[in-house]
User: Fold this.
Amino acid sequence: MPIAIAIIMFGIGITLKFKDFQRVFLRPKAIFSGLFAQLVMLPAVAFGLAALMPVDPVYKVGIVLIASAPGGTASNLVTNMLKGRVALSVSMTSFNSFAILFTIPLYVNLALSVFMGQSAEIALSFSETFKEILTTVIAPVILGVLMNEYIPDRYTDQLKGPLRYLLPAILLGVFAYALFFENSEQPTALLDNLELFIPLIVLNVSTMMMGYYFAKWVGINHRGAFTIAVEMGLQNSALAIFIATSVLNNSDLSLVAVIYSSFTFFSTWLIGWLQKHYLK
Assistant:
């Protein structure tokens, strides 16, 4: 999986130049607005939705958990497919990967207390997170950008065409493996808990629309607005599953992340496409 993610991020990087990132940091309103939407608004919506939905308390906590783990490679790829602000998407992924070291323990403990009357010690390693982000996101993107900057276009263009189709195929292959082959019980669990799709679809759609209109309200341009919406729609499901199973030792809690990851790549792309073409 890390190798697949690194290949995807290299493929995204080869479509960018350093000036794309320069714009993000010289005009930081978009990245600050996006991070606020991901790290504050998204969990707040999840808490409200979990409180209203008539599901088991452990799944209420699961809804908050998946909303507390924003970003990931999938959002960068979907933004690239939609020709959004890819540098903004990659930058948000990098920054929120460190911010969630603090926000996940806060939000998940609050959800455990509110919905289950429990608490848990959740400790995520800064060094391990830094190493993962460096090797799977930052370094491959920089390598791709360097190639795009300094290698003649006639060579890089030969890569860009095939990569448009190869990168989604790699990501879908990773999803399929994680969903159906890594754990043979997951397909059955999905079918046995179809009622969880309703609150998770509502979470996906509502947060993407909220992210888009919030971005427009604070003055972000159209491409930036639907880019932020895509970041709101796709979560780091692998991290949520790891916390549920390895940190909290609760496989029921991980089911929400599994279900969310089973459809949001497609639904987020569709909603982002509709926002791009019809909400100008």
User: Anything to note?
Assistant: The radius of gyration is 18 Å. The chain has one domain: 2-278. Residues 2-278 form a domain with the Na+/H+ antiporter like fold fold (CATH 1.20.1530.20). The mean pLDDT is 86.
